[in-house]
Amino acid sequence: MGNREIYTNAPLALTIVELRHTTSPRLSEADKAGLKALLANAFPIYRPAQQVEITLTNSGATETRAPCPRFMTRDFTEAITFRDDAIVVETTRYKRRSALRELLQLAVEARQKVSPVDGIERLGIRYVNEIRVPNLEGPTGWQHWISGALTNIASIRTADTATQSWQGMAVFGNASRGVALRHGNFEGYAVEPAGDLRRPAPAPGPFYLLDLDAYWVPEGDVPQLDWGNVEENFNAVGLSAYELFQELITDDYRTEVLEREQ
């Protein structure tokens, strides 16, 4: 795939891989014990998550919650969750795509050894970026750091009012492969530092959200869930998000913030 630049001050607050698979029976207590044994070296903390299911009927919507196994690192910065319909890997200390791929491989191989599932339905890698810059001079200042394709609306104003905030969504690609982008200028945090996953907590303030969900959805037959099928598409999905991110930031942000020595 070639080398990709690793930035000194990367803006990633959270990275999530969701490998959605055909629905399986709920994991038994023996299955959970087997997963814990296989993951214990890297993910020794068992902390169940809640799987929420919403059912729509003529009388309204009903919500049911069921615990699903979740294993975390001792510093609570990484987690692997096994749902009935997906394997989810989360990290707040993303380093490089190869390291994330190794975590997903660990999760896939553990699941398939303990209670195999039949096939892959979707692979998504979500990168939640909180873009923070020094000395931002109001909303129009984002045009210096973020592509004008996203921020030019900040230049629109009437006689006595100016644009203060905006949000948007765009999908690049097609139904099988692409990247869904959510963006906008916000205050505070996109990923709360006090959440289940711990993360470094920058001072709250204005940030620009670049939330990229890169995905692959198999066409035609449902492919088997084996690591070979996953790995090939993981690399392509991750690279598509990286390339789009590069198009969404300016050279000034790249050199003055991302590459600045700490």
Walk me through the topology.
Elements: E1 12-21, H1 29-39, E2 45-46, E3 49-57, E4 60-68, E5 70-72, E6 78-82, E7 86-91, H2 97-114, E8 120-131, H3 148-151, E9 167-173, E10 177-188, E11 205-216, H4 227-248, H5 251-258
Helix pairs in contact: 1-2, 2-4
Task: Give an overview in words.
With 262 residues, this protein is an alpha+beta fold. Helices cover 24% and strands 33% of the residues. The protein is built from 5 helices and 11 strands. The strands form 2 sheets. The protein has a 9-stranded antiparallel beta sheet, with helices on one face. A two-stranded antiparallel ribbon has the order 3-4. A hairpin with a 3-residue loop joins β6 and β7 (86-91). It starts with 11 loop residues before the first strand and ends with a helix. The model has no long low-confidence stretch (mean pLDDT 90).
What can be said about this structure in brief?
By secondary structure, the protein is an alpha+beta fold. It has helices at residues 29-39, 97-114, 148-151, 227-248, 251-258; strands at 12-21, 45-46, 49-57, 60-68, 70-72, 78-82, 86-91, 120-131, 167-173, 177-188, 205-216.
Provide keyphrases for this structure.
about 260 residues; alpha+beta; nine-stranded antiparallel beta sheet; two-stranded antiparallel sheet; 5 helices; 11 strands; globular
Strand content: 25-35%
Q: What is the strand arrangement across the widest sheet?
A: 2-5-6-7-1-8-11-10-9
> What is the radius of gyration computed over CA atoms, rounded to a whole number of angstroms?
20 Å
Could you state the order of secondary-structure elements as H and E?
Answer: EHEEEEEEHEHEEEHH
- Coarse structural class: alpha+beta
Number of strands: 11
Counted by DSSP, the helix tally is 5
- Ranges where pLDDT stays below 50 over 5 or more residues in a row are none
Give the N-terminus to C-terminus distance in angstroms: 29 Å
